[in-house]
Amino acid sequence: MTESVTINAHIVDLDARRIAPSTVRIVDGRIADIAPTASADGFALPGFVDAHVHVESSMMVPSEFARFAVRHGTVGTVSDPHEIANVLGVDGVRFMRENGARTPFKFCWGAPSCVPATCFETAGATVTPADVHELFALGEVGYLSEVMNYPGVLAGDPDLLAKIAAARKFGKPVDGHAPGLRGDTAARYAAAGITTDHECVTLDEALDKIAAGMKILIREGSAARNFAALEPLLHSHPDRCMFCSDDLHPDALAVGHINRLVSRAIAGGADLFEVLRAACRNPVDHYQLPVGQLRVGDPADFIIVTDLAEFCVRETWIAGQCVFSAGTTRIARVDCLAPNRFATVAPPIEAFRVPARGPFLRVIGARDGQLVTDLVEFPATIKGDHAVADPGRDLLKIAVINRYAPAPPAIGFIRGFGLTRGAIAGSVAHDSHNIVAVGADDASLARAVAALVDAQGGLAIVDGDTCDTLPLEVAGLMSRDGEAIAVGYARLDAAARRLGSTLGAPYMTLSFMALLVIPRLKLSDRGLFDGETFAFTDLFKAP
């Protein structure tokens, strides 16, 4: 039976660079006709696409992520499932794909390229070149996910090159991840087949990578925010830009998505049509996405906004279905299983003690709004024979605990979190997703970690005798109830601020303190790691 729908709106035509009142006729999910009209209400434009996101960071399964994203005019994402792949391997990738496919939302899943991300940490699984080839051969993925091990690419690592070769064999793009690479080194990385980068933190770095042939994903997420530095690219190289969130926690996804970047860019004076190409068209072209562009013959994927300044979304349409209208998501909730891998035990309080071996520490310096950290040489606070946390000097302990098998915790010290008491912990810890915790004392650390072991994953906070836990039952990363997780996350985030944290997103920042492929100093479950030398380093600095 033929289904036909007609809407009247001011059509934003990206090809003709014009806005005109029009009648759009939709037949069986596609745009059948666009004709002039005398009366129109609102502005219709292609739906937004997030060009690089880890859905797992929303702490929602894909079907729940979709229910939130369409509220903000997002109709599709380029989604890297390497978070769940580090826990469950290829089975995790297939879980994401199958769950997302039960909604009309247009997910493009990638084949994880770096699982585990490095050999310096314990992950729950390995994704081999053969796995990647099979995912492409079966048509289950649309691109090779970010190649984070850029030293491996530059050194000609055979496994990495085999994964890149598989993507090229099937005509699929390869995403990059190369923080700080410049000049000839960036060119060598791009020459291996890398087509994008979302890790630029300076304009000069982005320009070097554009010169090397890469496209730049302007990122504004919950932990890493690079829009301000890279906004000039929308004026100088709009055809080489896309927007992405990378990692967006549930509280942020509840209030906005790519629409916020579009509004911000317009307010900054960027050309409307170039901004919308970055938000709607460039990702579709680059990743060969089946997302319509409000043209005759295209799938009817579009949004209607009230204005072209704030981009408040009135309606979102995907494949001719109205999936959001009048403030209500029309995507139904999907039941699903809760696969997980959690096989550790809670360490005793004694395991968090650090015997003093010198007067100076190598301390992780966390930066608000950035994934990169500093290596800070800092005087230790020593009580008896042990180096201890000293909240008065913003010197806290950080611990990473292997969640896949019982093992002693790795312990370090960190500055920048600002906690004056208590501890926070999570099993969302890029990329291997072991347990990571930061605390003002050993007892709080031990209790927060134990709470996560009991819950088999999630987030926790300890304040004196009070412990609050937010379980994440799917792989220790996600929940099947988006509304509950958004409320719960906001509750724990507010509680972290009451402990003294001054970070914009304490739990998001915490989740990146074990990400070894982002310089400079990080902590894995195996010890303190220097991202510049790409090797373990001693916690105590030799005199």
Model description:
- It contains 16 helices and 30 strands.
- With 543 residues, it is α/β, with parallel strands linked by helices.
- It has two domains: 243 residues, TIM Barrel (Alpha-Beta Barrel), CATH 3.20.20.140; 188 residues, no CATH class.
- An eight-stranded mixed sheet has the order 3-2-1-4-13-14-15-16, with helices on one face.
- The longest helix has 17 residues.
- It is globular, with a radius of gyration of 23 Å.
- It starts with a strand and ends in a 7-residue tail after the last strand.
**Envelope shape:** globular
Named at the architecture level, the CATH assignment of the largest domain is: Alpha-Beta Barrel
Task: Tell me the quaternary state.
Answer: single chain
Mean pLDDT: 95
Total number of β-strand segments?
Answer: 30
> How much is the radius of gyration in Å?
23 Å
Structural class: alpha/beta
Question: Uncertain spans, ≥5 residues at pLDDT below 50?
Answer: none
Question: What topology does this entry show?
Answer:
Blueprint: E1 4-13, E2 18-27, E3 30-36, E4 43-46, E5 48-53, H1 62-69, E6 74-79, H2 82-88, H3 90-100, E7 106-111, H4 129-137, E8 143-147, H5 150-154, H6 158-169, E9 174-176, H7 183-191, E10 196-197, H8 203-211, E11 215-219, H9 227-230, H10 233-236, E12 241-244, H11 250-253, H12 258-267, H13 272-287, E13 302-305, E14 313-318, E15 321-325, E16 328-329, E17 354-355, E18 360-366, E19 373-379, E20 381-383, E21 386-388, E22 396-401, E23 410-415, E24 423-426, E25 435-439, H14 442-455, E26 458-463, E27 466-471, H15 482-498, H16 506-511, E28 521-524, E29 527-530, E30 535-536
Parallel strand pairs: 1-4, 5-6, 6-7, 7-8, 8-9, 10-11, 11-12, 18-23
Antiparallel strand pairs: 1-2, 2-3, 4-13, 13-14, 14-15, 15-16, 17-21, 18-19, 20-21, 22-23, 22-25, 24-25, 24-26, 26-27, 28-29, 29-30
Helix pairs in contact: 2-3, 4-6, 7-8, 12-13
